[in-house]
Structure formats: structure tokens, C-alpha cells
Amino acid sequence: MLRAGIVGLPNVGKSTLFNALTRTRKAEAANYPFCTIEPNVGVVTVPDSRLEPLAKIWRTSKIVPATIEFVDIAGLVRGASRGEGLGNKFLQHIREVDAIVEVVRCFESRDVVHVAGALDPVGDIETIKTELVLADLDTVGRSREKAEKAARGGDRDARTLLAVAEKLEKHLDSGKRALTLPLSPEEKEIARRLFLLTSTPMIFAANVAEGDLARADSLPRVAAVRHYAETHVGTEAVVVSAEIEAELAELADAEAAEYLAGIGVAESGVGTLIRAVYHLLGLRTFFTASEKEVRAWTFHEGETAPVVAGRIHTDFERGFIKAETVSYEDLVASGSTAGARERGLLRQEGRDYLVADGDVILFKFNV
Fold first, then answer.
1. Per-residue pLDDT of the chain (367 residues; tens, 9 = 90+)
2. Residues 42-51, buried b or exposed e (16+ Cβ, 10 A)?
3. Secondary structure (DSSP) of 165-193
4. What is d(CA 114, CA 74) in angstroms, rounded to the nearest whole number?
């Protein structure tokens, strides 16, 4: 299962958000730096409005959503790349995740101290970026030195690595993240071997106060985070209120929806964040459905039908014959599989078929 790491400076709401995401109290949330030391891990279900209509078609009450894993990582401080605070642990834990959710504090509070003494969302982002870039420069520098020695001995792979390392070093030295450096597919594969912190896909979670959530789009601090995300990283910023999410996690779904409606918000920020991370990781969803259950399965965009079938069971991939497929939209519009078949919307797809998000599939196989 792929993992998304929640990072940020101390006291920005990481642990509170993690608890809301996982509907647990596994992570301690306290008003002092480093209340999280060892990372907390939780499995999170991916909200998907398509599951309920599918369950109605098959008249089943059993719904199994897709899941991803979130990790709450200790807060970072200036100097982490030199081991300050919990720097070494923090950096190692980031290397172990597939995507980063950077929580950025956009709320004022006299009760929650800010490690820098003043609220500056973009400045906070730059602090973390600087520490990760410095750590990556150290990694690239050591790799380049080894490659130089091997290249002098005639090692062709080392020469290729050296060329990529030099590009990365120059890019990082200018204060930019590795993921923003244009590289060819072959160069990206080489760079991947270095496990650079700033090469990890990321999004931002702008954490606002409870009273600001309904008007978050008009807040200058949120606008600044969104602008930074788009122009410096080519990613998005999702607005959340960890304070509200912690309260919603204690409520039933109907009560949570009523609460949100009461404060003028259409959807929980957590749901938006989970889906954003899911897509950031290149993950998509297909469905299997019967009278027993409706289940969402995760696959990577661009995977073929046999590979996707293997997500269910290796025998499905090994003995793949065909995939009886209909899109979610066509199935719902038809009212049933039989209806989709009558309208010519149920397709028989072969080994080369690239599965699309929302496909409802019945795999045929023989082993």
C-alpha cells in the first residue's frame, strides 16, 4: 500500500489532522514542539460517491472502499539538515513515503505557539524546503564523488549517473526542489536511485481556523499558499480546518454533513485532501460488483487489464481471458448490467486494454 507522509513545522496541526483522517487518537496533539517523535501510521478510506449508487443497483449493503496509508511525521525545525531537533529521524521518515502532504499553518492563535514567533505561511514552506534541499545537496554531492571515481575507471553507468548528479546539484544549489527539474525518462530513472527528499510528489494543506473555513477562498494567507504551490511546485493546495475535522471525526456521517451545512461548507476538507493525495500518487479506481458486495480497487493510471486483474488475485492476471467492462456513468444510466448490455455499452476488452477510472469490471480467467 502506498504511503503519504504528513509533514510541517511543529504546532501547525499535523497530528490533529492525522487523527481526523484516520478517525483515531493515535497521534498526540499538544501545544509544544516534537509531541510526535515516532511516526504514527493509519489506513484511510478514499471517499467515493460512486459506491452508493452501485450498491443500490446490486441491492447489497456491503461496500468496501479503496484505501491509502497516511503517516504522521515529527515536526521539522530550521537546521534539521544538520541534525537539529529531530532532523535525522524526520528526514529518514520522509524517505520512506511515496507522497508528501505539507501542512501549512494559516490560523492565528494565542494558545498555540509558533516556532518562528510569527505567522508566515510562505516563510514556513521555505524553511522546510531549504532543509530538504540542503539534505539533498549532501546526498547528491556524495553520490557525485563516488561516480567521479568510478567514471575515471571507465564505468559507463557511473558517467551517466555523474551527468544527472551534476544537473541535480546545480538545480538544488539554486534553491529549487528536485521534482521541478526537467529530466528525460531515462534521467528520471537514474535520479530515482538517489532517493532525494525533494523529488517526492507533494501537495499542501492550508490549515485554517474553524471560523475561517467557509470564507477560506478570500483569505490572503490561503491565496499566498495556493500561488506558491502552483508557481514553485506545480501542485495544489487544499484548504482544511484540522480543528473542525477533529470534531467531525467524532460524529456520524449524517451529523457531520448537517454540521458542515450549518457553517456554510459543502464538503469536509479531509475528503478533498484524501482524493487529492490519491490522484497525486497516480492512483485510480475500478469497481467489482455483485449481490455480495461492491468494492473499489486501486490501480495505477496506464495499467492494462491483466495487470489490474492481478490486483484482485494473481490467478486473475496469470489466466486472464478478457474483461467484461462498462463505465460507471453508462451503468448507472442503464440501471443494470443487463440494461447496459442491451444498449451496447457493455464491452469485451482484451489484454491490451488500458483500464479507465470508474470502470466496472467482471474478469474472465482460466488457470
1. 789 999 988 888 888 898 888 875 444 444 434 444 467 888 999 999 999 999 999 999 999 999 999 998 876 656 545 554 444 566 778 888 999 999 999 998 776 666 666 789 999 999 999 989 999 999 999 999 999 988 888 888 888 899 999 999 999 999 999 999 999 999 999 999 999 999 999 999 999 998 899 999 999 999 999 999 999 999 999 999 998 988 888 888 889 889 888 988 888 888 999 999 999 999 999 999 999 999 999 999 999 999 999 999 999 999 999 999 999 999 999 999 999 999 999 999 999 999 999 999 999 999 8
2. bebbbbbebb
3. HHHHHHHHHTT--GGGS---HHHHHHHHT
4. 15
Q: Which amino acid is it at 15? A: S
Closest alpha carbon to 298 in 281, 323, 315, 314:
281
**Quick count: other Cβ atoms within 10 Å of Cβ 200?**
20
What's the sign of the alpha-carbon dihedral 29, 31, 93, 203?
Answer: positive
Handedness of CA 172, 178, 184, 186 (dihedral sign): positive
Q: Give the bridge partners for 363, in sequence order.
A: 323
Q: In the chain, what is the straight-line distance between the N-terminal and C-terminal CA atoms, in Å?
A: 27
Q: How far apart (Å, rounded) are the C-alpha atoms in residues 71 and 206?
A: 18
Give which of 243, 239, 247 is closest to 210, Cα–Cα: 243
In whole angstroms, give the CA distance from residue 251 to residue 116: 35
Produce one character per residue of 312-345: b if its CB has 16 or more CB atoms within 10 Å, e if not.
Answer: beeebbeebebbebbbbebbbebeebebbeeeeb
Contacts of 306 by beta carbon, 8 Å cutoff, 6+ apart: 316, 317, 320, 351
Between helix 121-152 and helix 87-95 the angle, nearest 10°, is: 70
| Residues paired with residue 71 on neighbouring β-strands, in sequence order | 5, 41
CB of 114 closer than 8 Å to CB of 11: yes
pTM of the model: 0.86
